[in-house]
Amino acid sequence: MQDGTLHSPGNFEETIILRGDVYAAQCPTRQLLDRVGDKWSVLILTLIGEKSIRFNELKRNINGISQKMLSQTLRSLERDGLVIRTVEQTMPVAVSYGITPLGAELLSTLQALINWAETRMNAVSAAQILYDQRKETD
Amino acid sequence: MQDGTLHSPGNFEETIILRGDVYAAQCPTRQLLDRVGDKWSVLILTLIGEKSIRFNELKRNINGISQKMLSQTLRSLERDGLVIRTVEQTMPVAVSYGITPLGAELLSTLQALINWAETRMNAVSAAQILYDQRKETD
DNA sequence: CAGCATCCATGACGATACTG
DNA sequence: CAGTATCGTCATGGATGCTG
Question: Which residue of A97, A127, B2, B45 sits 20 to 30 Å from the alpha carbon of B81, by its own alpha carbon?
């Protein structure tokens, strides 16, 4: 019944104190899904995982990202210990981002999920079309 | 350089037509992350993966979910071909949700990610604390 | 070059009320 | 029991302008 997975059905007698959101916020799986589920984290992590890369190089490589979101997401990834920010004191300054061992670990885990998406999401799309057709004809 | 991963740096000459969001919307990895990144999908999928389960049984087991979100998420998972909805014509009707082969496949892939979260998110938390301390003292 | 600050629109989600 | 419908809120993220 392994407990602790998301906010899975724990049995707690004093449930009055625990509000749903508080419970969810503490859950490690919830925290991870919030991070990898956001719009840019996985893509950025993937690129940085290939090789260390500069800020504007990332920006050029990622189609459609704003510098606000690039900056913000990099800050979060850095804070989480998944990427490392290095400043070379040239003129002007050159900042590059690299992956940490922890980040590389996560990235390899994510690769399984990405592979699944790339090979099986067409099956999902097919299911969606079938579902929608069924709903049309009633 | 495997292309097609999220909206990774493709080289397209006619980039004027392609808007960022359109590109992103078509990406299978983006679609999957949108689904598993939402608030309830993974938890619901995990419970259904253990055994077929009734609507209100799910609701009771998931702390803090509204019936709107339970219903809505189940509909999405069903549409994606990840869970199957079965109606027994008793009085009143009994509806149960089970996992499909496709859903089971995804779930096993997700388990690796969940395991990583449960074992390594404390390292992430530690990194966050370190980062915040650094920022305080400047 | 590598950002931060601000404003604003959209969409996700929760609360509530109603139904076969 | 198993939902649908509607409304309000809040957070995510895009656009824009400014800085060392």
Answer: B2
Nearest CA in chain A to B4: A118
Range of the domain at B17: 1-36
Residues A51-103 pLDDT 10s: 999 999 999 999 999 999 999 999 999 999 999 999 999 989 999 999 999 99
Terminal Cα-to-Cα distance of chain A (whole angstroms):
40
Nucleotide with minimal C1' distance from the CA of A67 is C3
Element (H, E) at A77: helix A67-79
Same domain, A30 and A44: no
Q: CA at A44, C1' at D16: how many angstroms apart?
A: 24
SS3 content of chain A, % helix, strand, coil (to 5): 60, 10, 30
Could you tell me if B8 and B44 lie in one domain? no
User: Is B83's pLDDT higher than 80?
Assistant: yes
pTM: 0.87
Q: Which residues of B touch A79 (CB under 8 A)?
A: 127-128, 131-132
Considering only CB atoms, which chain B residues are within 8 Å of A114?
5, 29
Residue B91: its pLDDT value, please?
85
Place of tokens 């840019």: A40
